[in-house]
Design brief:
Blueprint: E1 3-10, H1 23-28, E2 36-37, H2 39-44, H3 51-61, E3 65-73, H4 82-97, E4 104-109, H5 121-133, E5 139-143, H6 151-156, E6 159-162, H7 171-188, E7 193-198, H8 215-225, E8 232-236, E9 250-255, H9 258-273, H10 286-297, E10 304-308, H11 323-330, E11 336-342, H12 344-353, E12 358-363, E13 375-385, E14 388-391, E15 399-402, E16 406-411, E17 414-419, H13 429-432, E18 443-446, H14 453-456, E19 462-466
Parallel strand pairs: 1-3, 1-4, 4-5, 5-6, 10-18, 10-19, 11-17, 11-18
Antiparallel strand pairs: 2-3, 7-9, 8-9, 12-13, 13-16, 14-15, 16-17
Helix pairs in contact: 3-7, 4-5, 8-9
Bound molecules: zinc ion.
Zinc ion binds next to loops.
């Protein structure tokens, strides 16, 4: 019987963000399933939109025996603590080492993890896994579309396979694709040649969305380029908020021959760099965005939906900035709702006061983002929730959510979802669980950049993007980069990064 060790460890690290990811954050999971060990993993990883769940389903259909180690993820944030990384990776690597004879290893990784002690978290995980299995056992990993892929990751894995959608509605599909590639490796005993190309400019996440051009067309062409000669080809636009040498977009190809892999990687890289001018679009100020949305809402039959893109907890924000809420109230928005503001203290105060009560709070604004502060106002508590519900939309794909004690607070005709745990507002259920019907609102402001579009585009009249203070600048050129590759353009057609000469500053 084919025996395969499996594990998952997911984190997207914004090195400029305010809060680190601790071991407890991985135990809870944020928007991911909570940490699972050994056989429990295979109970959790069922029929949900996660890479490991798709792999498990395909592996069982193939009749493979799985040896589970550990699976966990945490909300994107600043660095993973050394303690969290070492405890989780030890469990994963010990599990692989003690699994007995193995035919392969599959890992569900993100690809943009930076820890307190390592710039390239996944490069280190794959190196340690390779060390215990030796050079002959296939090692395959699925990656997020936001992976900042490094030469070390490519070196230690037999194949890396990235998602192709943003919103990531194909996480489980990518696990299935990994199983297909692994079946090829096991069936032929052949190793594919690898080609890896890093691209010369950072791509802001708003323009990575695969519902829009140019990214949509790039992935359609990518899929058409796969063949018997090049069975697996990936484009990872990268996560442009991790300050290290290998931050940025890349392509990676696996071919029957080196020439096959090189030709596919070069062709795909040229296709993407040829679109440099097209990774661009309109970003509104909070006031301009709210006023424009209210104007559109006068004749709209469905909600105008604003992405509060810079406080996206899916990109390292704390989901607690108040700039968009202030703009809604300041402009007297009506039938407006926003969420989710992560603020356990305010949620607790609302629960203590009870439904119908009036509470004066310093809401949100606790992460210390420059230009932001707690919003001191009086709110009506409209509804309370224990925060437990299912998110059935295509992004979370039926995952059990745990937002902790939560409330709907109202100020004027603006309703605010307040929670005690952080997760990206990417499902209509994240309004409904506190009694807000999103389809009945004129204006919705979602703390998300792109993932919300999977569940909200079908109910939206129009989508707008606003830049209120937050940890994930919409303009990648505005970040204080210090460690990028010399010469990479810090946005499409932007200036090239040049390292500051630090040798002089000490003199
Ligand atoms: Zn992602």
């Amino acid at each position: 019987m084919t025996r395969i060790a499996v594990g998952g460890f997911l984190h997207e690290t914004n090195t400029f963000a305010p809060t680190k990811a601790t071991y407890d954050d991985f135990v809870h999971g944020g928007g991911w399933p909570s940490m699972a060990h050994g056989a429990d993993m295979l109970k959790v990883m069922r029929k949900i939109n996660v890479g490991l769940a798709g792999f498990v389903e395909a592996a069982e259909a193939n009749g493979w025996e799985l040896i589970p180690t550990i699976s966990c993820g945490a909300s994107p944030s600043a660095h993973v603590t050394e303690d969290a990384f070492e405890r989780i990776v030890k469990k994963m690597i010990d599990g692989i080492a003690s699994a007995g004879p193995l035919d392969a290893v599959y890992l569900d990784l993100h690809g943009a993890m930076v820890t307190e002690h390592l710039d390239d978290g996944e490069g280190e995980i794959l190196a340690r896994a390779r060390k215990v299995i030796g050079k002959d056992v296939p090692l395959v990993a699925s990656l997020d579309l936001h992976a900042n892929v490094t030469p070390e990751m490519v070196e230690h894995a037999d194949a890396l396979i990235a998602y192709r959608t943003y919103p990531h509605v194909d996480m489980a599909d990518t696990g299935r694709a990994s199983a297909r590639h692994l079946a090829l490796l096991l069936g032929t005993r052949q190793r594919f040649a690898k080609a890896f190309r890093q691209l010369p400019f950072l791509i802001p996440i708003s323009w990575q969305c695969t519902n829009d051009q140019p990214t949509r067309g790039i992935y359609e062409k990518l899929a058409a380029m796969e063949s018997d000669a090049v069975p697996t080809l990936s484009f990872a636009p990268g996560f442009p908020a991790a300050d290290f040498e290998h931050c940025g977009p890349s392509v990676f190809a696996y071919g029957r021959t080196q020439a096959d892999a090189d030709a596919a990687a070069d062709k795909l890289a040229a296709l993407i760099t040829g679109h440099e001018d097209d990774f661009d679009g309109r970003i509104y100020s909070p006031d301009d965005g709210v006023r424009h949305a209210m104007e559109l809402a006068k004749t709209a039959t469905r909600p105008i939906i604003i992405a509060d893109t810079q406080d996206n907890p899916g990109a390292g924000g704390d989901s607690d900035t108040t700039g968009m809420l202030r703009a809604l109230v300041r402009n007297n928005a009506t039938r407006a709702a926003t969420g989710v503001i992560y603020d356990p203290q305010s949620a607790k105060a609302a629960h203590a006061a009870g439904v119908g009560a009036t509470v004066t709070l310093a809401l949100g604004g606790k992460s210390g983002i420059p230009g932001d502060a707690p919003y001191k106002e009086t709110f009506v508590v409209e509804q309370l929730s224990d925060g437990k519900f299912v998110a059935p939309g295509p992004y979370y794909g039926g995952r059990d959510m745990d937002m902790g004690p939560s409330a709907c607070l109202r100020i004027g005709d603006v309703r605010v979802v307040v929670s005690s745990h952080k997760a990206q507002l990417a499902d209509q259920a994240m309004y409904r669980y506190v009694g807000i019907e999103p389809t009945k609102q004129a204006v919705l402001v979602n703390k998300s950049s792109v993932h919300f579009r999977a569940d909200f585009e079908p109910i939206a009249e129009k989508l707008l993007i606003c830049a209120a203070p937050g940890a994930m600048p919409a303009d990648t050129a505005s970040l204080p980069w210090t460690k990028l590759r010399p010469g990479i353009r810090i946005k499409p057609n932007g200036p090239a990064f040049a390292p500051v000469n630090t040798s002089r500053s000490t003199g």
